[in-house]
């Protein structure tokens, strides 16, 4: 069975679409130099911190993707690399957008997209108050896993990580890799980021790839970083620095996944008669 290298990226996204695009292209080049066949980028890689009408004007429908996504697609084709990336997508609502996860193949074509199901409406004591539903339309469906050179990839986004039922359903549909492009806050990241990622890997016996925004985006918002790749046993096999832009690369060996699932067939042991 072929072993495929993948890369997980992190950077401090800002309000400039062109600056964020240049950062993504630079990280894609670095991943290609390390022989990665697929790269995973954070949530909101196109822009972050833009509010209201400005965010609406900067976003595009997937049928007319605009300069950011067009640039990433062109680079994916040039490098022969698959890409997972989080963006803003226009919705039918004039004042709200979709938070969308796009999968691009090595020909530069968008092969799948997923709209975030669970919106981050929280008020954390001594932390941020974030009401994602004020600016974002929730998705209404799960997207089947997509076959990639590294394995079958199931799509989530950030806050979705806290909902085990989403991960388990993707596993039931054949996912071998779960991916969560994210912009975790510093407070929640310090407390929960790694333990949640490892939990989703262990309970689904899947690789988990989580690219994260990192650093201070503006006076009100900072992201935790620590992008990582976790194997199906729950071991962190690659991790980015907690403070800096960069990538981390690891091999995906599906024979490891098959062995773990065979030796401990938890999906066969689930009590669907009790928990349908």
From TrEMBL:
Pfam families: CN_hydrolase. Residues 4-254 form the CN hydrolase domain. PANTHER family: DEAMINATED GLUTATHIONE AMIDASE, NITRILASE-RELATED. PROSITE patterns: CN_HYDROLASE. This is Carbon-nitrogen hydrolase. Keywords: Hydrolase. The keyword Hydrolase applies. It comes from Lobosporangium transversale. One of its GO terms (biological process) is amide catabolic process. One of its GO terms (molecular function) is deaminated glutathione amidase activity. CDD domains: nit (cd07572). The keyword Hydrolase applies. InterPro entries: C-N_Hydrolase, C-N_Hydrolase_sf, Nit1/2_C-N_Hydrolase.
